[in-house]
């Protein structure tokens, strides 16, 4: 199979859409020739995201959802998990819960989590193994933001091999960094972590959380410096993992420009197709 484009190689494709993006950003609306509505996979559904999605039962859909900071992995991961009836597993979320509960793991992981650095693989391997061994993972899972680096991948492939789980496929949400940074500027959160987007999903009452009425503000790690650092970590650590999967033919990029519904429908179209295919090869021994 032809190697799939991986992030950097795939950027020229996003550049071809740059005309539309620039036009949208400066308020000129869409240009003829390409618009979200012209995308055959994009059929936005009315109502709140996730509320009207049909469920599509699957067997053996082992997916890792990847993408740079701010592309919406968690939003889409949760919604995809509902669509396919498989668990959404966010290692970052598990870690934040462990930190909050001050478990032994939480205390070791806390300094990394607070700085926005990657928690060492050795610390989280047993947590990942325990979670993936649960009976609810037998039919598949949506792993969110993991593996984050080559060390994670070696550990994960060992775990998958022990559990008899066939090879993992990575679905990558790709967005031009300039667009993501623009989006992060519009992100607001309450202290309990409920997220809003001032453009796409604004709160009903200005600066107040819809769910609990708490004040909304920018996320602590959405400062320009922290955003720059997170992109740097992604480029240095995660891009090599995506490149490796690209060479194996197991990386499936999805254009992440557009509304939440548009991107979700593109993701679902790709993953429906993967779910209909036979499982790929058994996990390979880790190769660099
Ligand atoms: Zn809230």
Describe this structure in words.
This protein has 288 residues and is of the alpha/beta class. It has a domain at 7-11 and 54-175 and 238-276: Rossmann fold (3-Layer(aba) Sandwich). It has helices at 7-16, 18-25, 73-84, 91-100, 104-115, 121-132, 150-163, 177-185, 224-248, 260-276; strands at 61-67, 88-90, 140-144, 169-174, 187-189, 195-197, 251-255. The strands form two sheets. The chain has a five-stranded parallel beta sheet, sandwiched between helices. Strands 5-6 form a two-stranded antiparallel ribbon. β5 and β6 (195-197) form a beta hairpin. α3 crosses α10. Residues 190, 192, 194, 209, 211-212, 214 line the site of zinc ion.
Which consecutive residue ranges, at least 5 long each, have pLDDT under 50? 1-50, 282-288
Q: State the CATH class of the domain at 7-11 and 54-175 and 238-276.
A: Alpha Beta
- Tally of strands: 7
Strand content: 5-15%
State the strand order across the main sheet. Answer: 2-3-1-4-7
Question: Kindly state the mean pLDDT as a whole number?
Answer: 78
Gyration radius, in Å: 19 Å
Helix-strand category: alpha/beta
Please give the CATH architecture of the domain at 7-11 and 54-175 and 238-276.
3-Layer(aba) Sandwich
Query: Helical residue percent?
Result: 40-55%
Termini separation: 19 Å
Each distinct ligand:
zinc ion
CATH topology of the domain at 7-11 and 54-175 and 238-276: Rossmann fold
Question: Largest sheet, if any?
Answer: 5 strands, parallel
What is the number of helices?
Answer: 10
Bulk shape: globular
Could you give me the name of the CATH homologous superfamily of the domain at 7-11 and 54-175 and 238-276?
P-loop containing nucleotide triphosphate hydrolases
- Encode the helix/strand succession as letters: HHEHEHHHEHEHEEHEH
């Amino acid at each position: 199979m032809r190697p799939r484009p991986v992030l950097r190689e795939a950027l020229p494709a996003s550049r071809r859409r740059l005309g539309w993006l620039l036009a949208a950003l400066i308020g000129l609306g869409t240009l003829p020739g390409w618009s979200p509505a012209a995308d055959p996979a994009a059929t936005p559904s009315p109502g709140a995201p996730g509320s009207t999605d049909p469920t599509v039962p699957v067997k053996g859909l082992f997916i890792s959802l990847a993408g740079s900071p701010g592309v919406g992995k968690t939003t889409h991961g949760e919604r995809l998990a509902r669509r396919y009836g498989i668990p959404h597993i966010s290692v970052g979320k598990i870690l934040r819960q462990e930190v909050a509960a001050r478990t032994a793991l939480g205390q070791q992981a806390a300094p990394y989590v607070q700085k926005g650095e990657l928690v060492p693989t050795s610390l989280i391997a047993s947590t990942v193994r325990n979670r993936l061994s649960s009976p609810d993972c037998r039919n598949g899972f949506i792993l969110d933001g993991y593996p984050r680096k080559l060390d994670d991948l070696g550990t994960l492939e060992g775990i998958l091999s022990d559990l008899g789980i066939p090879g993992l496929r990575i679905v990558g949400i790709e967005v031009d960094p300039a667009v993501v940074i623009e989006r992060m500027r519009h992100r607001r959160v309450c202290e309990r972590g409920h997220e809003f987007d001032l453009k796409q999903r604004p709160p009903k009452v200005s600066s107040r959380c819809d769910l609990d009425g708490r004040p909304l503000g920018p996320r602590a790690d959405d400062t320009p410096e922290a955003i720059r650092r997170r992109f740097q970590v992604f480029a240095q650590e995660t891009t090599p993992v995506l490149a490796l999967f690209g060479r194996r033919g197991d990386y499936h990029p999805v254009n992440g420009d557009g509304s939440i519904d548009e991107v979700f429908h593109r993701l679902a179209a790709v993953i429906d197709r993967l779910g209909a295919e036979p499982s790929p090869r058994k996990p390979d021994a880790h190769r660099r």
